[in-house]
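Note to self: keep these together.
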Amino acid sequence: QELAERFGFDQPIWQQYLIWIGNFFTGNLGLSLHFRQSVALLIGNTLPATLELVHGAGPAAAALRQADDI
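Structure:
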């Protein structure tokens, strides 16, 4: 019961959603239960490596596709 109140699960689903969407647009993505850190912080820490992989994979995929069309 205490856990439900802490995370707002005792509120109606529409109210939970409105709270979540409001938090989302203000940058509050919540707390990771696994890592016990801010989700926004976790995303921020891993985003540079993700973008680097995307940046490298995009041209490689295009080259492979072009080679396959030949």
